[in-house]
Every structure is written in C-alpha cells, then in structure tokens.
Automatic annotation (TrEMBL):
<dbReference type="InterPro" id="IPR005119">
    <property type="entry name" value="LysR_subst-bd"/>
</dbReference>
<keyword id="KW-0805">Transcription regulation</keyword>
<dbReference type="InterPro" id="IPR036388">
    <property type="entry name" value="WH-like_DNA-bd_sf"/>
</dbReference>
<dbReference type="Pfam" id="PF03466">
    <property type="entry name" value="LysR_substrate"/>
</dbReference>
<dbReference type="InterPro" id="IPR058163">
    <property type="entry name" value="LysR-type_TF_proteobact-type"/>
</dbReference>
<protein>
    <submittedName>
        <fullName>LysR family transcriptional regulator</fullName>
    </submittedName>
</protein>
<dbReference type="Pfam" id="PF00126">
    <property type="entry name" value="HTH_1"/>
</dbReference>
<dbReference type="InterPro" id="IPR036390">
    <property type="entry name" value="WH_DNA-bd_sf"/>
</dbReference>
<dbReference type="GO" id="GO:0003700">
    <property type="term" value="F:DNA-binding transcription factor activity"/>
</dbReference>
<comment type="similarity">
    <text>Belongs to the LysR transcriptional regulatory family.</text>
</comment>
<keyword id="KW-0238">DNA-binding</keyword>
<keyword id="KW-0804">Transcription</keyword>
<dbReference type="InterPro" id="IPR000847">
    <property type="entry name" value="LysR_HTH_N"/>
</dbReference>
<dbReference type="GO" id="GO:0043565">
    <property type="term" value="F:sequence-specific DNA binding"/>
</dbReference>
<dbReference type="GO" id="GO:0006351">
    <property type="term" value="P:DNA-templated transcription"/>
</dbReference>
<feature type="domain" description="HTH lysR-type">
    <location>
        <begin position="1"/>
        <end position="61"/>
    </location>
</feature>
Length: 293
C-alpha cells in the first residue's frame, strides 16, 4: 500500500478546508511557502492536481474534493484514537448549544445519560454564536433554524408547537387565559424576534405590533421573565414542560403554530464513526423522540 507523508496530508487538509494557503499556514504555524511545498509534493505523489489555482483563490478539483473528505475523516480518526491511548480519563463529548436550550431541555435530561454511560463525560458549551465544529473540537452543536447547514448533517431534536404562555398572576383573577389578554408592550422576545410575527400572521391578528416589547439574548431569559410576570412568551412546549406542570406558567387558550423552524442537532458525518460520539447521538435522538410524544 502506497501512502503519502502524513505532514503532506495535514497541510493539504488545512488548505482545502480554508481554501487558502495563508490561512492554512497561520493555523499550522508555518510559512505559506512550506504549505505550498507540501501540497505540491502531495500532488506530485498522486500524479494529478488537487486544486484549481485561480486569481481569486483556490478551488478543489472534483478529485481533490473527494480526497479532502477522505483525508479529513482519516485525520479525525487518528486524532481520536491518539487521544484515547494517551489518557486514562473518561472519553469526552463536547456539545455546543444556546444557554436557553441547555437549561430548559438538555441539562435536565443529561443525568439519564450520565447514569447509562459512566465512562463518558459530556461537556456543554453554551453560546449564542455560530461555532466552528472542526476548529473548536466540538462533536455536536444544537442550532435553531431550518436545518440547512452545508457540509454538515442535521437531525431535528425539537419541532413541537409554539405556544403563548405567561404567569398566572398576569391574568388573575380571571380563570381562563386567552389571547385577548396579550398586549404589545408585554411581548417577550428572544434574539430571533420573528416568532411572534409568524404566530400573529397565522392567527389572523393584525391589531398588535409584533415587534413591540422586550428582547432578551436567549429563550431562557424570556421564560424567566414570563415566570416573573413581566409579559407573554411564545415558546416551544417542550422547553416549559416542568413550568406548566408546576403552575409557574400557564398556556393561553389559542391556536398552536406549526413552524419549519426547529432545534437541530448538527454534526460532521464522520463524527458518528467514533463509538463514544455514536452513543451520545443515539441517546439524544431517543430523548428527542420522547419529547415529541
């Protein structure tokens, strides 16, 4: 079996991922000339070009793209196998999600996984920014959107209906809470801000300004504000199951909104090759199915 030098593979993978010799050199802490030399050596070894070199930058050839994907998968497996041999600690799965999703959905369920998989540590990184899974060593990310992420796989985790909720104190002493109680100055929004507009349009309500009210950085802050009686929140039912059960929040009698926007589990295809990541993936998909029942 003929194999090229590993250093050439590393330099090619970084160049192909960034589509930039300069960016690859900065990432690898070498000169641009060193990157170019290693990529040329690899192309010479293979007997064919891997890039189309244009005035505006690099583009992978069809064969180059296939080779890049194979190299990326191989380097990932080598890295994980090396980490496993060099440490006696538990294996780690790193998950990135928003603070709201972590607090309201993921963390309350994680005890179940920890009980089943005592040899795996799940580390939850909470952020509202879009993370780079490969560069930051993140196995899975949870993203709120339409599920279209180029180069990544995605599975729906949470796609239940959006419902309006509030504290029972906000509508007391009336016993029945309806949409008639909602006032525009009491609308609570997360950073997406578009859910109330979609909901009002679906309900045929046009006398309330959907962009009024207070905007919070995440859904967790919206839910906390609703519990405190500060206004009306529009949330996925699964995120407030315990609050509804305990009476901290009540759901208004109204239509429910089905939306194409959902919480998706996002990951690179080669992530599931690793048995540790696969165990977490199987568990969280199972949990999501339980939530949809």
């Amino acid at each position: 079996m003929k194999l090229p030098a590993l250093v050439s593979i590393r330099f090619f993978e970084a160049t192909a991922r960034n589509l930039s010799v300069k960016c690859a050199a900065e990432e690898l802490h070498v000169t641009s000339g060193a990157v170019t030399q290693q990529v040329r050596k690899l192309e010479g070894f293979l007997g064919r070009p891997l890039f189309e070199r244009r005035s505006r930058g690099l583009k992978l050839t069809t064969e180059g793209l296939d080779y890049y994907l194979a190299c990326q998968e191989a380097l990932t497996l080598i890295g994980r196998a090396t980490d496993k041999l060099m440490t006696n600690e538990n294996q780690v799965v790193l998950v990135s999600c928003t603070p709201g999703f972590a607090t309201q959905w993921l963390v309350p369920r994680l005890q179940d996984f920890m009980y089943q998989a005592k040899d795996i540590d799940v580390r939850v990184s909470t952020s509202n920014r879009k993370v780079d899974l490969r560069k930051e060593g993140i196995h899975f990310a949870v993203r709120h959107g339409m599920g279209e992420y180029p180069g990544l796989q995605s599975r729906v985790l949470l796609a239940d209906d959006l419902i309006p909720v509030c504290s029972p104190r906000l509508i007391a002493p009336q016993k029945t809470a309806t949409i008639d109680f909602v006032r525009e100055e009491l609308l609570l929004h997360d950073e997406h801000r578009g859910d109330w507009r979609l909901w009002f349009n679906a309900a045929g309500i046009n006398h309330i300004k959907s962009d009024s009210g207070i905007v919070f950085v995440n859904s967790n802050a919206v839910i906390e504000a609703a519990i405190a009686g500060r206004g009306f929140a529009l949330v996925h039912r699964a995120l407030v199951e315990s609050e509804l059960a305990s009476g901290l929040l009540i759901a208004l009698e109204s239509l429910t909104l089905k939306t194409p926007i959902a919480y998706h589990l996002v990951y690179y295809p080669d992530t599931l090759i690793d048995s540790v990541s696969r165990r977490f993936f199987d568990w969280i998909i199972w949990q999501s199915k339980k939530s949809s029942i």
